[in-house]
Amino acid sequence: MAQKRRSRFFYGYLVVAGCFVIQGTGIGTFNTFGIFFKEFLAEFGWSRAAISAASSGAFLLAGLLGIVVGNMNDRFGPRLIMAVTGSSYCLGLLLMSQLSAMWQLYLFYSVIVGMGLSSTDVIPLTTTARWFVRKRGMMTGIVKVGTGTGQLIMPLMTSIFIVTYGWRISYIIVGTLVFVLMIASGQLLRRDPGQKGLLPDGDAKTTVSDAHLLEQGVSLGEAALTRQFWIICVINLLIGSCAMTVFVHIVPHATDLGISPIASAGILSTIGGVSMVGRLVTGIAIDKIGNKRLMIVFFLILIASLLWVQASKELWMLYVFGAIYALSHGGFFTVISPIVAELFGISSHGVLFGITSFCLTIGGSIGPFLAGYVFDVIHSYQLVFFVLVGLAVAGVILTSLLRPVVTEP
User: What is the value of pTM for the model shown?
Assistant: First the structure.
C-alpha cells in the first residue's frame, strides 16, 4: 500500500465549522420556544397543553423526517438538503410573526418549522462521523458545542428582542438569522472525504482498498435484527422525554415561582453555556473511555439534577439545576452519534442515526405535551419531575445491558 500523506489543510475542519453553526442556529432557535410560551398565554389564553403540543409536533415531525433526511444524505450528500430545510425553517418562523389562531400555530410551527428542524441534528452528526474516525469523538464534541453555543446565545438574545420589539418582530429577526446562517453553513458541507480525494482524519486517498474503508458497516436490515439497536432506540426515547420536557417547561416553571422572564430565560442560557463544557469533555472522553460508561454517568447526573430542581424555589437554585443538568444534556447529545457508528459502522449511519433520533423525538414530543397536561390538571410540575427521575433510572438499567455488536468481517 502506498504511504498516506496529510494535507496541509484538512477540509474536514471546515465541515466541522459548518456543522457547528448549523447545530447552534437550528437547535438553539428551537429551544427558544419556551421564551414565547407566556406571550402566547397572555395574548391568546390557550392552555399549556395546547401550546406544548405545537413544540411536540414539530419535534416529532423533525424526527420522522430525519430518517428520510439521513437516508438522502447517505445517498446524495448534505448541501441541497440544508438549502431546502433551512428555507422551511425560516419560512415557519416568519409566519409565526403573523400568528392569530390555534390552527396556524400547528401549521406554522409543528409542520413548517418541524420540516426545517429535521436536518439540524442528522446532517451535522452523520457528516462529522464520515469525516473522522480516530478523532470522531472529539470532533462530534466540538460540533455539539455548537448546540450549547446556540442554547447560550439564542434564549437571552430572543428574550431581549421580545422585550424591545415584541414577540412578533422577534420571530422575523430570528427567522432571518436562521435563513442566512443555516443555508450558508450548509454549503460548506460535503458528504464524505472521498468527494475531496481524502480519507477520514486527513489522509490522502491512495488505493482502492482505502476507499472501501469509508463505507464499512452493517445495513439497516442487519442492524434491526440486533437487540442493541432497539435498546438504543428506547434509550433515546427516554432521553428525548426528559430533555424536551425540561426545555419547554423550565422557563414557565420559573416564572410561576415569581422569577422575571429574562432571568428565567437565563436558566436555558446556563444550560447552553455549561453544556458546551460537557459536550467538549464528552467528545474527548469518548475516544478514551468509551460510550457506554459515559451514558450511564450522564443518566446519574440527570437523576441528581431532577431531584435538586424539586427543592429549588429561588433563582440561584434553578441556575444550579441548569448547570448540573447541562452536563448530562450536553453529554447525551454528543455520545449518541458515535455509539451508533461504533456498534453498526458508517455505511448506513445516516438512516440508522435518523431512526434512533426519531425515537428521541417521539419521547421529546410526548414528554412536553403530557407535562403541560399534568400542569393544567394539578397546577404543579412536581409530579412531572418525579416521572422524569423514573425514566432516567430506566435509562441506567437499559444502558447497562448494551453489548458490542458482533458482525462478520
Answer: 0.74
d(CA 295, CA 399): 7
Instruction: Look up residue 135 and give its amino acid.
Output: K
pLDDT tens for 50-88 read: 888 898 889 889 988 988 988 888 778 899 999 999 999
- Report the run of H or E that residue 51 belongs to, with start and end: helix 48-76
User: In whole numbers, what is the pLDDT of the chain averaged over residues?
Assistant: 86
Could you tell me how many residues make up the chain?
A: 409
CB 158 within 8 A of CB 34: no
H helical segments located in 257-348:
261-289, 291-309, 315-344
Please tell me whether residue 204 adopts helix, strand or coil conformation. Answer: strand
* CA separation for the pair 279, 293 (Å, rounded): 15
| 11-400: CATH architecture | Up-down Bundle (1.20)
DSSP 8-state symbol, 91: H
Per-residue pLDDT, averaged over 358-365, amounts to 86
* Residue 97, phi then psi, degrees to nearest 5: -65, -15
In whole angstroms, give the CA distance from residue 370 to residue 270: 25
Nearest alpha-carbon partner for 198 in 13, 336, 360, 36: 13
Q: Would you say 188 and 17 are in contact if contact means Cβ atoms under 8 Å apart?
A: yes
Question: In the chain, where are the structural domains located?
Answer: 11-400
Strand, helix or coil for residue 2: coil
What contacts 377, CB < 8 A, 6 or more positions away?
none
Q: State pLDDT tens for residues 162-193.
A: 999 999 999 999 999 999 999 999 999 998 88
What's the grid cell of residue 244? Answer: 424536551
Query: Is residue 140 within 8 Å of 334, Cβ to Cβ?
Result: yes
Within 8 A by CB and 6+ apart from 254, the residues are: 263, 264, 267, 315, 318
Residue 1: strand, helix, or coil: coil
The three cell numbers of residue 398 are 437499559
Question: Residue 336 corresponds to which cell in the numbers above?
Answer: 449518541
Residue pointed to by grid coordinates 418549522: 113
- What sign does the CA torsion over 346, 341, 331, 230 have? positive
DSSP state of 195: G
Spatial separation of the C-alpha atoms in residues 166 and 360, rounded to whole Å? 33
